[in-house]
Automatic annotation (TrEMBL), chain A:
InterPro entries: TAT_signal. This is Gluconate 2-dehydrogenase subunit 3 family protein. The lineage of its organism: Bacteria, Pseudomonadati, Pseudomonadota, Alphaproteobacteria, Hyphomicrobiales. It comes from Bradyrhizobium cajani.
UniProtKB/TrEMBL annotation, chain B:
The lineage of its organism: Bacteria, Pseudomonadati, Pseudomonadota, Alphaproteobacteria, Hyphomicrobiales. It comes from Bradyrhizobium cajani. Belongs to the GMC oxidoreductase family. It comes from the Bacteria. This is GMC family oxidoreductase. The keyword Disulfide bond does not apply. Signal peptide: none annotated. Coiled coil: none annotated. Keywords: FAD, Flavoprotein, Oxidoreductase.
Length: 182, 522
């Protein structure tokens, strides 16, 4: 069978360049050692870097795929900053939602949500707010913004658009080779 | 190409250009009848279709406001999207999978075959399979259905091979790559299937039959058919004698136009068609046009549906190749010993990663959900589609609050499963999982129904005017020059996919309309 190359073509370097558009490449390179997260979260204009980083954690906890690095989740949640800038209602939806999540985390663990060390504990916190508008909106957005990234598809063995390659008629539409003989 | 005057009262106006409207338009045009098709959506040719699920959805899907109610899960998960159908020239024939099956004999007489089922508003069709057979034959020939007219079946893809191997192990007998209106070899000026795999996103190669690039250009070539895209019909008008005189529609610019007509045929799919009739209420017809029976909008059917996805140890790549070229027909018979009446088909189905994430278990999250998606390349899938019970309370009504941009009340879709639907779905899930278990599935996922693709029954055919909206030719019982030409005229839904029957009925209806016009009956 023709298998898909599932290795990441999404290099760390390209991501950093893309995320920090205004910053010269040398500057980015020298700051790599600091933290990959800081580079993107500090760019947010309306939501605070801490809020962006918590959103990232929330996104990972909602749809945990250990094969995916943070970059895909960052791409998925970054647009919330722009939406919050355009609409005060979105801004408070996110800020209030994160504040509540952090408050619950403090009550239970004396830590902010993003600092709670174990996924299982964070999932309990998410379960508590599962019916909230905040959670529903973030999850509903994420199910598209994460899985609709073309860069994500090969990681799941999905090849995307095929017409421009002549379809699969000569590319393995019927190449399964492990079935028992009928 | 023809261009008819708004005041030309000799034209037949058809609302909608899909399987019903597009076919009727061409058939009438071929017979020399002047036709204007008013299509609410834009004209998007097949080379502009995109192999990208969400982008294509934005390009083609009907996303105008609708509301929902009832206990069906779609009302909760996709409350504004009861149906996944198309707003574009070609209607849902751009999106359909191509499965083209004939009804069984008993499926035209369900009241006789099933008896009294509590809660079900069963009725025999005013037509029989014997009467429909010649029209089915014409439809199969027109559409180039595989395994008819000497057309070979499509080659089986990986997804089919998994299903076939499991089916044979279970002892199922009627298992093949389907009766598909998709060219397995070049035919009718269109090429053979390239196994592209995005059948639902519009067939870029044109191998799949769609009115967009078959019926409509053929009709236009006669000089008798004019298609006006971007034309949303608001109201059907009538005279003091109770005959329809034309329609009011919003044109591409949003300006209101009045097209006069000798005959109006409604083919806007089973949600918009009853909506239009209800929105056309007048002093003479206070409950809506053609609604003396009170059945307009009622008996809404959407098929018993569901999917089973199964994950295996090794790769399947189910998304490669024709989406629905695979079927098991053994469960399609009526065998009440299973605990329900009617039957169901098992058909191969694949959706891409983006739609799998959205539809596998809407609202789900966490590791059990992501574990399923991690299995995507090793997944096989099937769709379960069976006969659901018509119920008077499952219906399209006018929403009392929400209005569209032209100020017209939008359609509100209410649906509850009938106990027979629930029993059939449970059986189908179990059998679907057994097919995959037989060839080593490590896990199977019963997947809930998607927004409805098979919308049926809301202007149903009946022998007696009190039982339904239209007669055996789709002609309104109340208004002689008003016809219904889409799946809303179905008296019952049968187990199989509806398009072949819609096309066969449209060909037959064209024959009837042309004859009646010639005899000056209408």
């Amino acid at each position: 069978m023709r298998e898909i190359d599932r290795r990441s073509k999404h290099s760390r370097r390209v991501f950093l360049k893309g995320a920090a558009t205004a910053v010269p490449v040398v500057a980015v390179a020298s700051s790599v050692a600091v933290s990959i997260e800081d580079a993107w979260a500090d760019e947010a204009s309306t939501l605070s870097p801490a809020t962006m980083k918590t959103l990232l954690k929330v996104a990972r906890d909602i749809y945990p795929h250990d094969v995916l690095g943070d970059s895909y989740y960052i791409t998925a949640i970054k647009p919330w900053d722009g939406k919050a800038a355009k609409d005060p209602a979105v801004k408070s939806l996110i800020n209030d939602g994160i504040a509540r999540l952090d408050q619950n985390a403090h009550d239970r663990h004396k830590l902010a949500y993003a600092e709670v060390p174990w996924e299982a504990d964070r999932v309990v916190l998410l379960k508590e707010i599962e019916q909230s508008d905040f959670f529903q909106k973030v999850r509903g957005d994420l199910v598209v913004s994460l899985y609709n990234q073309k860069e994500v598809w090969p990681r799941f063995g999905y090849e995307g658009s095929s017409a421009e390659h002549g379809g699969y008629i000569n590319r393995g539409f019927a190449d399964i080779d492990w079935l028992p003989k009928a | 190409m023809a261009k008819f005057d708004l005041n030309d009262s000799g034209v037949v106006v058809i609302v909608g250009s899909g399987a019903g409207g597009g076919t009727l338009g061409n058939e009438l045009a071929q017979k020399g009848v002047k036709v204007v098709i008013l299509e609410a959506g834009p004209r998007i040719e097949n080379h502009d279709f995109v192999n990208d699920e969400w982008e294509s959805f934005s390009q083609l899907a009907w996303t105008d406001a609708r509301t929902t109610s009832g206990t069906w899960r779609v009302a909760k998960d996709f409350s504004g999207l009861p149906a996944w159908i198309v707003k574009a020239v070609g209607g849902s024939t751009t999106h359909w999978a191509g499965a083209s099956l004939r009804f069984d004999e008993h499926e035209f007489k369900v009241k006789s075959a099933y008896g009294n089922i509590p809660g079900a508003n069963l009725l025999d069709w005013p037509v029989t399979l014997a009467e429909m057979e010649p029209w089915y034959a014409k439809a199969e020939n027109k559409m180039g259905v595989t395994r008819t007219n000497g057309i070979p079946g499509l080659p089986g893809n990986n997804n089919f091979k998994v299903m076939e191997a499991g089916a044979k192990k279970l002892g199922y007998k009627t298992v093949h790559t389907g009766n598909m209106a998709i060219n397995s070899q070049p035919r009718d000026g269109r090429g053979a299937c390239q196994q592209i795999g995005f059948c639902f996103q519009g067939c870029k190669s044109g191998a799949k039959w769609s009115t967009l690039y078959t019926e409509i250009p053929k009709g236009e070539a006669t000089g008798n058919l004019e298609v006006r895209p971007g034309s949303m019909v608001i109201k059907i008008e009538h005279d003091a004698g109770g005959k329809v005189t034309g329609v009011v529609y919003a044109d591409e610019t949003g300006a209101m136009q009045r097209q006069k007509a000798r005959i109006v045929a409604v083919a806007g799919n089973s949600i918009e068609s009853p909506r239009l009739l209800l929105n056309s209420a007048s002093t003479m017809f206070p409950d809506g046009l053609a609604n003396s029976s009170g059945q307009v909008g009622r008996n809404y059917m959407r098929h018993m549906t569901g999917s089973v996805y199964a994950v295996f140890e090794k790769s399947v790549h189910m998304y490669r190749g024709t989406t629905m070229a695979g079927i098991i027909r053994d469960e399609a018979t009526n065998n009440p010993k299973r605990g329900f009446v009617g039957g169901y088909e098992m058909e191969t189905l694949s959706i891409g990663l983006p739609f799998m994430a959205a539809f596998l278990n809407p609202g789900a999250w966490g590791r059990s959900f992501t574990s399923a998606l991690d299995g995507y390349p090793r997944m096989a899938g099937m769709w379960l589609v069976g006969e659901d019970m018509p119920q008077e309370t499952n219906r399209i009504t006018l929403d009392p609050v929400v209005k569209d941009k032209f100020g017209q009340p939008v359609a509100s879709v209410h649906f509850d499963d009938h106990p027979n639907d629930v029993a059939m779905r449970a059986h189908a899930y179990k059998q679907g999982a057994a097919v995959y278990d037989a060839v080593g599935a490590t896990v199977t996922y019963p997947t809930p129904p998607y927004p409805s693709t098979h919308n049926l029954g809301t202007n149903r055919m009946s022998e007696k005017p009190r039982d339904g909206v239209v007669n055996k030719f789709g002609q309104s019982h109340d208004v002689k020059n008003l016809f219904v030409s889409d799946g809303s005229q179905f008296t019952s839904g049968a187990a199989c996919n509806p398009t072949l029957t819609i096309v066969a009925l449209a060909i037959r209806q064209a024959d009837y309309i042309a004859g009646a016009m010639q005899k000056k009956e209408i």
